[in-house]
């Protein structure tokens, strides 16, 4: 069933289309899942569980860069993933597990549990939103205005964000978040 959902597209599948793909009725699917959202959550869980989430702990910036890069890649490889996840009212358990794992890694670098969770959530939302905004169903190109000329005080992406340079302003946005996290971490150690 989940493979049929993925074939239809996470963001746009209908229970009827999934049932037709499987050669059954939508009523049969409702015997397994109470709602379309439950089916979507199960599909997201499977996709997230299949994904290899790196756990580099060289630095907290590397941890966050790995998380953001892997989530971005997942969004690019799984049609409709970002908009599906952003539209859910329930958080799939596999996503919660990933968030908890990365939060634990950040704690080893001095972040409080709460700050780590907020930071991972903020980065995840930014990656998902950017992916969703840059993905168009009609395959038209999304025009992104260039960044203003360099400002000496602007947040600059480090090597852990080099992969995001082609994703609009994502690298700069994440660098800004990273700089805020660094400030918070430094303030906590004083």
Automatic annotation (TrEMBL):
Keywords: DNA-binding. It comes from Propionibacterium cyclohexanicum. This is Regulatory protein, tetR family. Residues 14-33 bind DNA. Transmembrane segments: none annotated. GO terms for molecular function: DNA binding. It comes from the Bacteria. Residues 1-51 form the HTH tetR-type domain. Pfam families: TetR_N (PF00440).
């Amino acid at each position: 069933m989940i493979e049929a959902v993925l074939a239809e597209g996470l963001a746009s599948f209908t229970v009827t289309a999934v049932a037709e793909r499987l050669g059954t009725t939508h009523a049969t699917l409702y015997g397994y899942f109470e709602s379309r959202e439950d089916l979507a959550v199960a599909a997201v869980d499977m996709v997230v569980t299949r994904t290899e989430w790196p756990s580099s702990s060289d630095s907290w910036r590397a941890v966050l860069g790995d998380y953001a890069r892997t989530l971005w890649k997942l969004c690019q490889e799984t049609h409709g993933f970002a908009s599906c996840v952003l539209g859910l009212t329930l958080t799939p358990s596999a996503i919660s597990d990933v968030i908890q794992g990365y939060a634990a890694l950040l704690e080893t670098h001095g972040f409080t549990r709460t700050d780590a969770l907020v930071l991972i959530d903020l980065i995840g939302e930014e990656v998902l939103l950017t992916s969703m905004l840059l993905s168009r169903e009609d395959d038209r190109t999304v025009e992104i205005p260039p960044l203003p000329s360099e400002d000496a005080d602007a947040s600059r992406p480090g090597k852990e964000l080099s992969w995001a340079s082609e994703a609009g302003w994502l690298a700069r946005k994440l660098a800004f978040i990273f700089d805020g996290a660094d400030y918070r971490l430094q303030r906590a150690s004083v």
